[in-house]
Amino acid sequence: MSTVAVYPGSFDPLTNGHVDIILRGARLFDRIVVAILVNAEKSPLFSLDERIEIARTVFKDHTNVEVDTFGGLLVDYIDRRRAQVIVRGLRAVSDFELEFQMALMNQRLNPTIETVFMMPAEQYTYISSRLIKEVFALGGRVHGLVPDMVEERLRDKRAARV
Ligand code: PNS
User: Fold this and answer.
1) Element of type H or E holding 66
2) Which of 71, 76, 115, 141 is the most buried (most CB within 10 A)?
3) How many separate domains does the chain show?
4) CA–CA separation, 3 vs 25, rounded Å?
5) Mean pLDDT, residues 50-60
């Protein structure tokens, strides 16, 4: 039996921390599905289509990485995809409380699904999509923290605003 993992999230935008976790997952599981939540935020910076395009481009050479979208309950999506594992990244102790709650809620909703927490490489432990957007909006450099394509798209968005 092959093990399929789902890595769910908003990915607004995809960061190098996400990329690191996905590559680790791709080594560990037969298949990893990057599942982008539809309607996570009312006004995301990157549209759903942009987020799909970015993730598909970044992982185009990785045959066991798939990019998909989902709405509704994560455990229902996992069921539909016949997956067994939820992958979540843990960066710091501060992530733990919410992640622990979500993992236990998902376990209650479907006890057959396991949540696996993975640590990104140390240099990515402080990165979050929210900080990337804030730093970039205020003119800071995000080079090396996000895939090049995300950096380009952030620049395009800034140029379109002025
Ligand atoms: O990137 P994020 O915003 O931290 O991802 C959060 C996500 C998408 C994993 C979470 O909000 C989620 O699973 N949403 C789907 C709805 C659901 O199943 N909620 C109950 C899970 S405890």
Assistant:
1) strand 65-70
2) 115
3) 1
4) 11
5) 98
Taking the centre of ligand 1 as the mean of its atom positions, its distance from the CA of residue 74, in whole angstroms, is 7
- Residue in the structure block whose two tokens are 């396991």: 114
Which residues are designated catalytic? 18, 42, 91, 129
Best residue among 90, 102, 106, 109 to mutate for probing ligand 1's pocket (most ligand atoms within 8 Å of CB) is: 102
Q: Is 32 in contact with 87 (CB distance < 8 Å)?
A: yes
Supply the range of the domain harboring residue 85: 4-161
- The model's pLDDT over 15-28, given as tens digits with 9 standing for 90+, comes to 999 999 999 999 99
What CATH number has the domain bearing residue 60?
A: 3.40.50.620
Residue nearest to atom 2 of ligand 1 (CA): 9
